[in-house]
UniProtKB/TrEMBL annotation:
Belongs to the peptidase M13 family. Its cofactor is Zn(2+). Keywords: Hydrolase, Metal-binding, Metalloprotease, Protease, Signal, Zinc. It comes from Roseateles aquae. The lineage of its organism: Bacteria, Pseudomonadati, Pseudomonadota, Betaproteobacteria, Burkholderiales. This is M13 family metallopeptidase. Residues 470-670 form the Peptidase M13 C-terminal domain. It is an enzyme of class 3 (hydrolase). One of its GO terms (molecular function) is hydrolase activity. Residues 42-418 form the Peptidase M13 N-terminal domain. Its EC number is 3.4.24.-. Pfam families: Peptidase_M13, Peptidase_M13_N. Residues 1-20 form the signal peptide.
Length: 674
């Protein structure tokens, strides 16, 4: 799970041991100036903890949303910037990690050089597309584009769901310039249609800037084909079900299921084996795209691929392209009023290209060993609390409890950074060649991915860089992963009170642990295999409880007229609810029966829940909220904070809620899962 952002959808998540806190914490870890003293926690926990900050904070012009995650991500970016700025000014040995990082970053910042270079590099790529003269050549081009462009059929190499020790090629739907199929298909939704019209204008602008004499027609052709691709896409809820997206086929079966497309040429051009099992994520989409590849005009395909290419590379092209890209991707889609600073875009591009090279430099400077040691202790406490919680479940039979305990005992934990760093020695980085560096990095990373097909899974590999402010659970490896950058305030503060650390990072850890037992993760066993380890009655009991959680979140309305999709957000809502429950148990166990001290008039339990709510502090523009409601499996921050707390007995006891309070919920109606 990705704790904060959108997809890969599989990813973001006591006994009595204390978490090795300092003898005398130097702060509560709470930003009391951010409180709203006019709002009672009993009525709105999120607002009580964050209302003062919300009232006085304006979303920066270059942001679509702003809050705890964003501020910490900005801090991480600034820390990386200080490192790479120094490298860009120095003269490290040619071919060293330091030299490549510095040169990549400096070339991306050189907008004057990018403007001077003009469209020379782009013209060659567009000429390659224009030269496509057959369906076989179309398949080859789409294969070569893997890892560089969001094509209608995107490939990855990942652990086989039912044989998690082996890597397999997996297909996934893609190829859309708008965030989701709903933007194309829901023509009665005025907000979505406004974005759709902005996209149509953007395609026309790109074609014009690229010198296309038939710009209007090219944009029309591209969008018409893209509309058909969108119609073939599965909905977001369907793609969350690992059983539905696990469809193993060999090449002969794929040819029969999706005729009209040269799959052998496609795989060969992507440097992938043709004699291995393929996992097809959305079979009907693959069939429909193969039909489009066979029947739609090659001119339509070339118009579409040209504009998708220009859009993908826009930030590495002259100013007019960069401005057009921000006007659509930034302002129209997210509501941002100014483009992100170029240096921060450079850091994002660098992280994508050479993330672990940057991470190696980052952790040496910003991740003390004591942080890792304390996190290991905290994870141990949370896992112990989870074991106790499973044993106490009233709705699960002993046989399934034993399977759940077996799975929990096999959890692997990764904290901070990988034990072994990736080798970037063969990546070529040239000074002053921003676009070339980006393409070569994409090709380099894809070659690394493709080489894993059919080979044993590397269980030591990481799916995030250390400088990423996030966390995840991977069901195929049955692992929880916490990059170094999230292990900072407001989530984790070495100097802070235990109550707030348990409410913030403790709940994050609990969240990730819980993903192994949400509606998706619970379908994988302790060895990471997709296998039903439940009795039929236990699964029915689980689904009965989660149906109530779906109903609760369906009732929330973040934007006027737009309700949350409780089915789309179910996995994250389960993890929020269960993670908060487990973190609270772990905190109580850490007290060893003694009462927590009262600090600033707040007892330990109150500080725990305020720490939880403070971690979700955020403001979001309406355009971005619309986008997230359409594509994001996470609920908006306010509903994450309040939606989990309202079901928690500890919250009601800590604040003494009673009938009439807006967050009061009768004990018998509170939802308890894990």
């Amino acid at each position: 799970m990705k704790l904060k952002l959108t997809t890969l959808a599989l990813l973001l998540q006591l006994a009595g041991a204390c978490m090795a806190a300092p003898a005398s914490p130097t702060s509560t870890g709470l930003d009391t100036k951010g409180f709203d003293t006019t709002v009672r926690a009993q009525d709105d926990l999120f607002r009580a903890a964050n209302g003062g900050w919300l009232n006085r904070t304006k979303i920066p012009a270059d942001k679509a949303d702003y809050g705890a995650f964003t501020m910490l991500a900005d801090q991480s970016d600034a820390q990386v910037r200080a490192i790479v700025d120094e490298l860009a000014r120095s003269q490290p040995p040619l071919g060293s990690i330091e030299q490549k990082v510095g040169a990549f970053y400096k070339s991306y910042l050189d907008t004057a050089g990018i403007d001077k270079a003009g469209l020379q590099a782009l013209k060659q790529r567009l000429a390659d597309i224009a030269a496509i003269s057959s369906r076989a050549e179309l398949a080859k081009w789409l294969g070569r584009a893997q890892g560089q462009l969001g094509t209608p059929i995107q490939l990855d190499v990942t652990a086989d769901f039912k044989h998690p020790e082996i890597n397999r090629v997996m297909s996934w739907q893609g190829g859309l310039g708008l965030p989701d199929r709903d933007y194309y298909l829901k023509q009665d939704d005025k907000r979505l249609q406004k974005a759709y019209q902005a996209y149509a204008q953007y395609l026309n602008k790109l074609a014009t800037l690229a010198g296309d004499k038939q710009a209007v027609e090219s944009a029309r052709r591209a969008l018409a084909l893209e509309q058909k691709i969108a119609a073939a896409h599965w909905g977001k809820v369907e793609t969350r079900d690992p059983e539905k997206i696990y469809n193993p086929m060999n090449l002969a079966q794929l040819n029969a299921a999706a005729p009209g497309f040269d799959w052998a040429a496609f795989l060969a051009a992507a440097s992938l084996p043709q004699d291995d099992t393929l996992i097809i994520g959305q079979p009907s989409t693959v069939t429909a795209v193969a039909k489009l590849a066979a029947e739609e005009s090659l001119d339509d395909w070339k118009a579409y691929l040209s504009l998708r290419t220009i859009d993908t590379l826009a930030d590495l092209l002259p100013k007019a392209f960069r401005d057009a890209s921000f006007a659509f991707h930034g302002k129209a889609l997210t509501g941002a009023q100014a483009d992100q600073p170029r240096w921060q875009k450079a850091i994002a591009e660098l992280n994508g290209a050479m993330g672990e090279a940057v991470g190696q430099l980052y952790v040496a400077k910003h991740f003390p060993p004591a942080h890792k040691q304390r996190m290991q202790e905290l994870v141990k406490n949370l896992l112990a609390a989870y074991r106790e919680s499973i044993e106490a479940l009233s709705w699960m039979t002993p046989a399934t409890k034993a399977q759940a305990q077996d799975k929990l005992s096999k959890y692997m934990t990764k904290i901070g950074y990988p034990d072994n760093w990736r080798d970037y020695s063969k990546l070529e980085v040239q000074a002053g060649d921003a676009l070339g560096n980006s393409l070569r990095a994409a090709q380099f990373n894809w070659a690394r991915t493709a080489a894993k097909a059919g080979k044993p899974v590397d269980r030591a590999e990481w799916g995030m860089t250390p400088q990423t402010v996030n966390a995840y659970y991977n069901p195929s490896l049955n692992e929880i992963v916490f990059p170094a950058a999230i292990l900072q305030a407001p989530f984790f503060d070495m100097a802070a009170d235990d109550a707030v650390n348990y409410g913030a990072i403790g709940a994050v850890i609990g969240h990730e642990i819980s993903h192994g037992f949400d509606d998706e993760g619970s379908k994988f066993d302790g060895d990471g295999a997709l296998r039903n380890w439940w009795t039929e009655d236990d699964r029915k009991a689980f689904e009965s409880v989660t149906a109530r959680l779906i109903e609760q979140y369906n009732g929330y309305q973040p934007i006027a007229g737009k309700h949350l999709n409780g089915k789309l957000t179910l996995g994250e809502n389960i993890a929020d609810l269960s993670g908060l429950q487990i973190a609270f148990k772990a905190y109580q166990a850490s007290l060893k029966g003694a009462p927590a001290p009262v600090i600033d008039g707040l007892n330990g339990e109150q500080r725990f829940f305020l720490g939880w709510a403070q971690a979700w502090r955020e403001k979001t523009r309406e355009e971005r909220s619309l986008q997230l409601l359409t594509i994001d499996p996470h609920s908006p921050p306010k509903f994450r904070a309040n939606g989990a707390a309202v079901n928690h007995d500890g919250f009601h006891k800590a604040f003494g809620t009673k009938p009439g309070d807006k967050m009061f919920k009768p004990e018998a109606e509170r939802i308890r899962i894990w």
